[in-house]
Amino acid sequence: MLEQKLDCLVTSEEATRPVWPVRPDGLDAFLETRPPAQAGFLRDSGFKAKSGELRLLPGDDGVAGAALGLGTETTPFVFGGLPAQLPPTATWRLEAGDYDLDSAILGFALGAYRYTRFRDEPPPLARLQCPSGHERSRSQASAIYMVRDLINTPANLLGPAELAQFAVTLAQRYGATAELIADGALQQAYPTVAAVGAGSSRPPRVVTFHWQGSAAHAEAPLISLCGKGVCFDTGGYDLKPSSAMLRMKKDMGGAATILGLARLIMEADLPVRLAVRVGCVENSVSGHAMRPSDVIMTRSGLSVEIGNTDAEGRLVLCDLLAEACDESPAVLIDCATLTGAARVALGPDLPALFCNDDSWASTVLRSGSAVHDPMWRLPLWAGYDDWLKSPVADLNNVASKPMAGAVVAGLYLQRFIRPTTPWLHIDLYAWNDSTRPGRPEGGEAMTIRALFAALNERFAVPSKD
User: Fewest beta carbons less than 10 Å away: which of 37, 65, 305, 405?
Assistant: First the structure.
């Protein structure tokens, strides 16, 4: 899963056929540049240059090229249908037009992704000529492929040990110093992660790794990332219905997202220090599993009553966040497939952002809009904080009221964040329910392009001594 070949992109321009991206307001001018037979074909076939509309253009010996309608769309995904729509017998090149080439290359690559580990060789897809100087698109596509592969891998093949080893391997690839914590050491350092994993025959793991850019000095900004890596979630004793378990292999989507973001940071060699923590665990039912009304101690010393064993993600994260704050990071980011409430509020395509720093929230939201990787900010509403009260412990892991579930989850996590630490919590879906151009059904890498753009904006220029 680490090596992404991106066979859909080639460097040679030899024997390529053209694709002309066209917007409606430029259609007339484009038709004037085409040979009469092609212009007449486009007119007669009703081509209007609508978003995603494709026409193959006739030539003397077959298909001479293609016209792709862009409509008014500026996202990468308008190019995402091309790998399957264009004839795979040719390699294609994008002609100049009113669009961003980096975005187009990325969209094409995202549309070419397929998870084929258990299937016969799929039908071939078209390939795109990618000029030199567009390494950013390749890097982002590779990271997104990696995240998608992780989420799509069945839970029987990607348990806590396998996810942890993958994180270690990724860290070592970029020269980071990694540590894998298990067994008694994990129980001591991350008691809430241990409690979530107690019911599974596959013991939990925590991976931490630290990396420093080649231009980063000892006092360079520290970016801290934490990810929820629940490889499968039954709900524990608060058992999910079977229909709700069908996609629970994706409950490690937060960890996959964090690893994808870390890969982008390290591959770009940002002049920063990086700390990554991933909690790898399975939430199962057994005689050893945590029970509703149990009380567990957290790393920070707070006691937590288990109001619901299916609210395990916040337990996985809270010890990681507490440890991350001890290092006083310049920014702390966590990602998790945390609540169904966020999906009810915002739907599957729009991750929920919670943030205790308005400046950081503004930067991330603006970056997400610019790169078409959006989020929507929800409040850490202090008025709901006492909903987490417990009569026997410092707090409960769920609210006493059946409302504002995503907000309450954020408030729970905030209890483990130092007030001086800029913190972003992202509650995401990490999945496409159906196939759309550039977004095939299955695991999805949400927010990593937005977060990377925001971090690059803040930290790309090295600090002067």
Answer: 37
